[in-house]
Write a structure and sequence with these properties.
The protein has 246 residues and is an alpha+beta fold. It contains seven helices and ten strands.
């Protein structure tokens, strides 16, 4: 039997076919803490709980295309907000009991944006929240909290997905320029350090941090200074992606 004949006779129902989904960890930094965009579910399962924006993958759709669809659809971000968004595949979550409906495997994606990009989406949809994340050294799941510190109930295994995403982000800080995705085009060295401290959850030595960032060749001084400062305005820098790609 040649391959054409084999394919013509192949029965796709011979094996069970689990469903495939993508879930999007869309992170930022707000008020000195890592944060994630969550969506409150209005249907079962986990009705009323908070979950990552996600969707089932279409039969003719690539994983990357599905993730971008979620970024613009479930996350309610427009083209301007999504422009230049950092997006990478994070991990595949396939525990048999991760979804009570049926066997659903989720490919999680990880995206980063400056906090200001979320303003329009949050204002237009009360079911969305930018929740602060906490993760202890030995914790298997992350906790999402409101602005006043209350923990939000999370659906599915999304606490474990968030823990994986936050550890990935922490791990990449030291060798990549991933933190620049959380900053505007022009930023101060103070703002860059604050992003690193928020993600790591620990203060950093100011002179050592600035020397390390400048020595890597990732930054270029713009010759401009920040506006509206009550003290001596700090110099503004920009990222040099051609020398330090994420």
């Amino acid at each position: 039997m040649d391959e054409r004949a084999f394919l013509d006779d192949y029965d796709p129902t011979a094996f069970a076919r689990p469903s495939l989904a993508v879930d999007l960890v869309l992170m930022s930094v707000i008020e000195g803490a890592p944060a994630v965009l969550l969506l409150r579910r209005d249907a079962h399962p986990f009705q009323g709980a908070w979950t990552l924006p996600g969707a089932f993958v279409g039969i003719d759709e690539s994983l990357d295309d599905a993730a971008r669809r979620v970024l613009g659809g479930k996350a309610h971000l427009g083209e301007a907000e999504m422009d230049g968004a950092y997006l990478e595949q994070l991990y595949t979550f396939g525990a048999v009991d991760r979804d009570p409906r049926t066997r659903i495997i989720s490919v999680a994606y990880f995206s980063l944006l400056p906090a200001g990009r979320f303003a329009a989406a949050l204002a237009g949809n009360p079911a969305l929240a930018l929740a602060r994340l906490t993760l202890g050294a030995g914790d298997e799941t992350a906790t999402a909290r409101t602005g006043n510190g209350d923990a939000l109930p999370l659906g599915f295994d999304h606490g474990a997905i968030l823990a994986t995403a936050l550890r990935r982000l922490r791990g990449k800080l030291d060798y990549s320029g991933i933190s620049f995705a959380l900053l505007p085009e022009r930023f101060t060295l103070r703002a860059l350090q604050e992003v690193h401290e928020a993600i790591l959850g620990t203060p950093l030595n100011k002179p050592a941090f600035r020397r390390r960032m400048l020595d890597r060749g990732w930054l270029a001084a713009t010759g401009e200074r920040e506006a509206g400062a009550s003290f001596r305005p700090a110099e503004l820098y920009r990222h040099l992606p051609e020398q330090g790609e994420i």
